[in-house]
Amino acid sequence: MRSRFAFTVLPLTFVAGQQIATLTAEVHPALTWQTCTAPGSCTTNNGKVVLDANWRWLHSTNGYTNCYTGNTWDATLCPDDATCAKNCALDGADYSGTYGITTSGSSLKLNFVTQSQQKNVGSRLYLLADDNNYQMFNMLNQEFTFDVDVSHLPCGLNGALYLSGMVADGGMSQFPTNKAGAKYGVGYCDAQCPRDLKFINGQANVDGWTPSSNNANTGVGNHGSCCAEMDIWEANSISTAVTPHAADNPQQTMCTGDACGGTYSSSRYGGTTDPDGCDFNSYRMGNTTFYGPSMTVDTTSKFTVVTQFLTDDGTAKGTLSEIKRFYVQNGVVIPNSESNIAGVTGNSITTSFCDAQKTAFNDKNGFADHGGMAAMGKAFEAGMVLVMSLWDDYYANALWLDSTYPTDGDATTPGVARGTCATTSGVPSDVESADAAAYVVYENIKVGAINSTFGSG
Q1: Which residues are catalytic, by number?
Q2: What does the alpha-carbon distance between residue 438 and residue 220 come to, in Å, rounded to a whole number?
Q3: CB proximity list for 434: less than 8 A, separation 6 or greater
Q4: Rounded to an integer, what distance in angstroms lies between the CA atom of residue 8 and that of residue 217?
Q5: 368-387 residue pLDDT tens
Q6: What are the phi and psi torsion angles at 308 (to 5°)?
Q7: Which of 251, 239, 320 is nearest to 285 (CA)?
Q8: Is the model's pLDDT at 280 over the cut of 90?
Q9: CB 46, CB 32: distance < 8 Å
């Protein structure tokens, strides 16, 4: 994907920190999910979700003074990375009232814009194993299934469900100055090596911080947070993509400056991760009637998404060899669309598909450069954290997902057209006003053996 942190958070003090405060109690909303061994043979797990640290109120440890206001750090509390981490505390969250996040049984609903005392836009949450640790997933020879409602997600929004190479405790055991950990949603990373995180590895990102020129609430620091990323689902009601992103080191590492690569650096391909990934977007692959309102997968109503991670020997010890996608809607199993691009065959992600697609689209094959399918499999072996989010895109208006991108490209050139949205769509100020009532629902998450989590009828 193009830019993971392109959302905006309008409350002036909702950012990330490493100390903890208790002015607001941190109560994690409950969310059930299931593990399956065969169709109809599933066990319910009593999980919880936690809000990412970047949305939270960060204030002085001995009072209410904001450590970060607008897109600028407080010079007294945060003169440098280490001092800031000592002076600033991360507080609990009012999930429904402030952030528009609600759960019921196995269902998680994320509202796009929530107006309380201040205005909040978007959110990102992680599935917890317990109050202090993220749930870890190894998807080798497994499948991941969930139901989703994208009917209220227009052009420019991205309801994303994916796996990140974060560590289970959010980095507390590795970095003693990190006092917040998974309990407060700390430790995020992805293949863009995001540099707009306020804290990484127990220290602030103050040094070299440059306020954003087009977002009054964000900026870019000298450090980024890198890891492998498996985008199981990035979508709105118009387009969707499934995209593995390989990395030299599958788990979270800190990078510095433009050596991070990704969205936030002058050299996109200068880092240790694959920022583009190997994507399968049905529209981009030439089938323009497969996914969308009243299409084969009808986005005006709820449907089930199934993603299988197959290995070369059919066991959890094998090498990742294929990523397959199915949908289930109204009791009908729908295989993923086939590629209609000359020279690219199939309806799943394999090494041969990725190589052929990169050639056909004249794209850099960063996926292969950073280890491809085998490297993605190594990330699964290390364990990955489930992320569920809703955001808008201040870097590219989500045109990489649902429109013609790059915008000056010829839509008839293979790989340029990704959806039917106008190239003028997705501007954050527009969607935050016109589509404030947008939302996404994720529910009925199931993980288990191949062909165990879904069926027809």
Answers
A1: 229, 234
A2: 28
A3: none
A4: 7
A5: 999 999 999 999 999 999 99
A6: -105, 140
A7: 239
A8: yes
A9: yes
